[in-house]
Amino acid sequence: MLSPSPSSSTSSSSITVMSAISLLVFFVQICLFVTNVSGSHHHHNHNHNHNHPNHNTNNNKSSNLGDKIVNLPGQPFVGFQQFSGYVTVDRNKHKSLFYYFVEAEVDPSSKPLVLWLNGGPGCSSLGVGAFSENGPFRPKGNILVKNEFSWNKEANMLYLETPVGVGFSYSIDTTGYDAVSDAITARDNLVFLRRWFNKFPQYKHRDLFITGESYAGHYIPQLAQLMVQFNQKEKLFNLKGIALGNPVLEFATDFNSRAEYFWSHGLISDSTYKIFTSACNYSRYVGEYYRGNVSPVCSKVMRQVSRETSKFVDKYDVTLDVCISSVLSQSKIISPQEENGESVDVCIEDETVNYLNREDVKKALHARLVNVRQWAVCSNILDYQLLDVEIPTITIVGSLVKSGIPVLVYSGDQDSVIPLTGSRTLVHQLAGELRLNTTIPYRVWFAGEQVGGWTEVYGNILSFATVRGAAHEAPYSQPARSLVLFKSFLQTRPLPEML
Ligand SMILES: *[C@@H]1O[C@H](CO)[C@@H](O)[C@H](O)[C@H]1NC(C)=O
Ligand SMILES: *[C@@H]1O[C@H](CO)[C@@H](O)[C@H](O)[C@H]1NC(C)=O
Predict the structure, then answer these.
(1) Confidence band (pLDDT; 50, 70, 90) for 325?
(2) How far is 314 from 414, CA to CA, in rounded Å?
(3) CA of 314 to the centre of ligand 1 (A)
(4) Cβ count within 10 A of residue 172
(5) What is the residue-wise DSSP string for 288-316?
(6) Atom 13 (ligand 1): residue with closest C-alpha?
(7) Strand 95-102 vs strand 156-161: parallel, antiparallel, or unpaired?
(8) Across the chain, which distance is largest between two alpha carbons, in Å?
(9) Using alpha carbons only, what angle is made at residue 439 by residues 434 and 441, rounded to the nearest 5 degrees?
(10) Is the peptide bond before 163 cis (omega within 30 degrees of 0)?
């Protein structure tokens, strides 16, 4: 996951905290696996599906009753409602997307609707977003514990597993997993929302925000753009803003900020920094890798980078410890360490996988596995067009801002995968292109009595913020600060200035 490095890719993929979580680089490995393995797999699975879920393919109006979750196994008592189930987005291929919807803790009818998307491409918003980051519960052993900083304190949260092949979402016609692109994903996501509104008509014209992270830097602007276009025919989406966390917005800028990040955080030496920025930079390496054509020079540079950074540091949060049990399952090299009493559960991914694969949990969620044996954090069956990573979505962000939609780009500042420096540069450049003046100069913002990070705002509509001490998955490692950020974003207010 550190890199699609030929020499170390197999072992580095699952050692980190959120190992497979929401990232894109990691996905290279999965995809190669998919291309090689699942091609043959697809067909023989095809006939096993007479027992496919018998959900509402005909979209009965406002029939969400079957989707209401009575109780998730092991959950504490809560006063809000939860729903989950399927929305069919393509009747010919029987493509259905799985969602988990959590109403706001208090007074849901007065609160906005927020769609959350994780990235990958191919990682789950249910497992990562809802159960590890900003949902109401986190799995711990056999039970769910309450997340005190759940985003449903401020909004009605809709988590979507997208595209098909991710999590519990599926395509009965397995060609639906082939060559899935950004364009297909955006279109399916739009169809999903339109039909989801048929189940939940009370949310139809509600203030709507879209949030997410990583490769959702592609999904979200592309979906928002389709919404803006759709609204010209029929005003349906009351889109009030988008927030993008450690997003891929322009592949070269985002990927090449990694070298300096590694170097300035002590993960690579001076001499390696030099060759990683001259002989072969990361965007070149990834481009070559995706085209199946890695040059000897890039291969050499990446081997050196991998050796120095090591696989025992989580590239998604360079200061956080890794999950020792996962590390040990990959390697006996390092010795186990005692729990240090840290409040962040670095093994949460393992717990989520265990929880979501329980029969009673799947039943409570109205979820089924189709074409796969296990619910996984990131899809093993999806064959995504990885070169779509090179599509610049920062330009789409620009057109959204021009059409009056507020945009927040935020960065967990411990992430080396999509570092804050690349995102900050891209936002600053965009502000320049749009001729937006700085309305809030770069300054700290507060969460409680501590600095939550730094922020800058352009033209009162385009914002950048860091979350101090946060991972690629900011709400996972800094839940309190992330909730402050989220609340300000929903209110389109500047981040808190003082204590
Ligand atoms: C990365 O490498 C490519 C190809 O060699 C080059 O065009 C580009 O300018 C480099 N970018 C950076 C930031 O060094
Ligand atoms: C932006 O700043 C420039 C220079 O201070 C000023 O001339 C211009 O009017 C400002 N634009 C807006 C839209 O406020």
Answers:
(1) low
(2) 10
(3) 26
(4) 18
(5) HHHTT---HHHHHHHHHHHHHH-TTS-TT
(6) 256
(7) antiparallel
(8) 63
(9) 110
(10) yes
Task: Return d(Cα 24, Cα 19) in angstroms, integer.
Answer: 11
Give the pLDDT confidence score for residue 50 in this predicted structure. 39
- Which helix (H) or strand (E) is 363 found in, with range? helix 359-365
Measure the CA–CA gap between 473 and 407, rounded to whole angstroms: 19
472 as an active site residue: the answer is yes
Phi and psi torsions of 395, nearest 5°: -70, -35
Model pLDDT, residue 55? 45
Q: Are 209 and 241 in contact (CB under 8 A)?
A: yes
Peptide bond into 121 cis (omega under 30): yes
- Ligand 1 atom nearest the C-alpha of 278 is 14
* HSE-up of residue 349 (Cα within 13 Å, Cβ side): 26
Residue 369 near residue 266, CB atoms below 8 Å: no
Least confident of 76-80, 338-342, 362-366: 338-342
Of all ligands present, the nearest one to the C-alpha of 458 is 2
Query: Which ligand has its closest atom nearest to the C-alpha of 288?
Result: 1
Distance of CA 223 to the CA centre of its chain: 14
Identity of the amino acid at 337:
Q
Q: Distances from the Cα of 449 to the Cαs of 171, 300, 475, 488, 497, in angstroms? A: 49, 47, 18, 17, 11
Measure CA 469 to chain center. 18
Alpha helices in 234-269 (DSSP H): 251-264
Whose CA is closest to atom 7 on ligand 1?
Answer: 284
Q: 25 near 254, Cβ under 8 Å?
A: no
Look at 55-64, 195-204, 308-317, 382-391 and tell me which has the smallest mean pLDDT: 55-64
In eight-state DSSP terms, residue 152 is G
What whole-number distance in Å separates Cα of residue 480 and Cα of residue 7? 39
Cα–Cα distances (Å) from 130 to 9, 100, 212, in that order, read: 28, 8, 11
- Tokens of residue 92, six digits: 């010919």
Active site residue 214: yes
Encoded tokens for 124: 């789950």
List the beta bridge partners of residue 239.
208
Encoding tokens for residue 88? 């069919």
Identify the bridge partners of residue 249 per DSSP, sorted by sequence position.
none
How far apart CA 93 and CA 258 sit, in angstroms, is 40
